Structures are given as C-alpha cells and as structure tokens.
Amino acid sequence: MMDAPLPPLPPQMFTTSAQLLDLTDKKLLVSLRDGRKFIGVLRTWDQYANLVLQNTVERIIVDDMYCDIKRGVFIVRGENVLLLGEIDLDKEDFFPYRLAPHKEVFARQLEVQQEKKRKEKTHKKKLLQLGFETETEVTGL
Q: Where does the UniProt annotation place the signal sequence (predicted)?
C-alpha cells in the first residue's frame, strides 16, 4: 500500500525572515554574534530580520550565576543575530543558575575575560614559536 504524499509546506516555512511571523508577540531569547544574550517580547521585524524587542533584559551568565540588566525597547540588527528561540514560559522560572548581584557577576566576568586574553596570548606565542603567524602579524595591524 502506498503512503499518501505529504502536504506541501506553508510558504512561511522557508529560511527567510517570514519565519518570524509565528514568533511575533512571543518572549524570545536572542543570542548575538558578540556573545550577548537578550530576552524580550518580539514586537516587529522587517525583511532583513531586524528585530524590535520590548521589555528587554540583557542576561549575563558567568559560571553558575547570572544577572539581568533592563534594556527596555531594544532594536537588534538582523545580521548580528546568531540564534533566536521562543522561551518556554512554563520552564522559565526553573533556570539552572543562581541570580547574583550585578557587581558580583561583573567582577567574575572581568576575571574570566582576563583569563581568556591571557590564554589567547600564550596560544599565539606558542604558534609563533612553531612558525605560524596570526593575521595581525601578517597584515601588520
């Protein structure tokens, strides 16, 4: 017995900004290329996937703690969006990290960034010893 053919996909299911249609007026997590994460309600968008978020907070996560910084209405340029997804409102209150004061999170974030820079510097130094050059040494920037 032959299976019936699958129905065609609706036109908004293709990889265009039209996929945002179903996410309008829903709470989203938007992760940017620079590593920042924003949570807000998607109010509008355009053909370039530029987003307007309302009641936006920037969530900073370091180790096992996080803090939220209120940003209000926030415009995100589409080319900077790395990932976005709808937040499950039933699971939102069960975040696996602990809420910490801003100062504590910022201090730890600074430590992590400095450690990352130190490791990157050591890594570049080892590569140079092995005969590899990074882009900045080649271009002289």
A: none
Same domain, 111 and 75: no
Q: What residues make up the domain containing 109?
A: 101-141
Each residue's pLDDT tens digit, 66-94: 999 999 999 999 999 999 999 998 888 88
Give, for 114, the enclosing helix (H) or strand (E). helix 102-129
pLDDT at 14 over 60: no
Q: How far apart are CA 114 and CA 120, in angstroms?
A: 10
Beta strands in 1-141 (DSSP E): 27-32, 37-45, 51-62, 65-76, 81-86, 98-99
State residue 85's pLDDT score.
92
| Nearest to 86, CA basis, from 40, 43, 46 | 40
CATH number at residue 27: 2.30.30.100
Given a cut of 70, whether residue 100 has pLDDT beyond it is: yes
